[in-house]
Amino acid sequence: MPSFYHFIIGLSLLLILVLRSRNKSAYRKQINIITFTLVVVLIMELAGLYTARKGINNTLIYNLGWIYLESYLLIAYFYSLERNLIWRKRVVKISVLLLIWGVINSLFFEPLFGAIQFFSLLPFGLFLMILSIRLLYQLLNLEIYSQRSLLVIPHFWIACTILFFYLEALVLFGTYNFFPSVIMENVIIVSMLNKMMAGLMYFIFGFAFIFPDLPNLLNPKKNSHTFS
């Protein structure tokens, strides 16, 4: 039976689907990307749960689904918000290099069917953290969305959770890669921490977009407004 973690992902997906059906948001492109990301994550996690309970090696699911597909979807999310042409070109070039490295790493160093590919996760995670920090810097310095309160800008919350989740993930899987005994001795606590951080991030993915417009969604008869 799915856990509370899977319920949180499903709830977040439901929230953002409600937003898509009842509100014409100016964040339509980002909402589409995040919606597809949550669909991928939910399918991946349910498949991972099923295979784990059947005793089937599910490393391939997480290597392809999390490290590659989800990472590229999040890169696409940041790319859709980037207004600087130079940075947009950088994002494309680095994304291509990450794919090339992923292929090399899978063929010669860390097989997809082995353990989690830490040396593919590492550059993806660092790149996503850089993109998160850049977006937060732009928001805090009022370079974008300067007419809106920071707390009602969904991208602020999403960037924050991506930053902290990937920081936690890199520390966790880095420790496991180099000092596996440390993780194995505390596997229950570490697993709970990882699920908590991931669950928080995925919940924010859906809730961040719906929260600023929640009063209008609860009271559809009132004059509604769209994000700007």
Question: Can you put this structure into words, describing what you see?
Answer:
- Keywords: Membrane, Transmembrane, Transmembrane helix.
- The chain crosses the membrane at residues 6-21, 33-53, 59-79, 91-109, 115-137, 149-167, 187-211.
- This protein has 228 residues and is mostly helical.
- The chain is built from nine helices and no strands.
- Helix 1 packs parallel to helix 8 (187-210), helix 2 (28-53) runs antiparallel to helix 3 (59-81) and helix 4 (85-108) packs antiparallel against helix 5 (118-140).
- The chain starts with a helix and ends in a 10-residue tail after the last helix.
Shape: globular
The number of distinct helices, counting runs of at least 4 residues, comes to 9
- The domain count comes to 1
Task: Tell me the total number of β-strands.
Answer: 0
> What is the helix/strand order?
HHHHHHHHH
Helix content: over 70%
What radius of gyration results from the CA coordinates? 18 Å
Spans of at least 5 consecutive residues with low confidence = 224-228
- Give the strand content: under 5%
Briefly say what this structure is.
77% of the residues lie in helices and 0% in strands. Helix 1 runs antiparallel to helix 2, helix 3 runs antiparallel to helix 4 and helix 5 packs antiparallel against helix 6. With 228 residues, it is mainly α.
Write the layout of secondary structure elements.
Layout: H1 4-22, H2 28-53, H3 59-81, H4 85-108, H5 118-140, H6 154-178, H7 180-185, H8 187-210, H9 214-218
Helix pairs in contact: 1-2, 1-8, 2-3, 2-8, 3-4, 3-5, 4-5, 5-6, 6-8
Transmembrane segments: 6-21, 33-53, 59-79, 91-109, 115-137, 149-167, 187-211
Keywords: Membrane, Transmembrane, Transmembrane helix
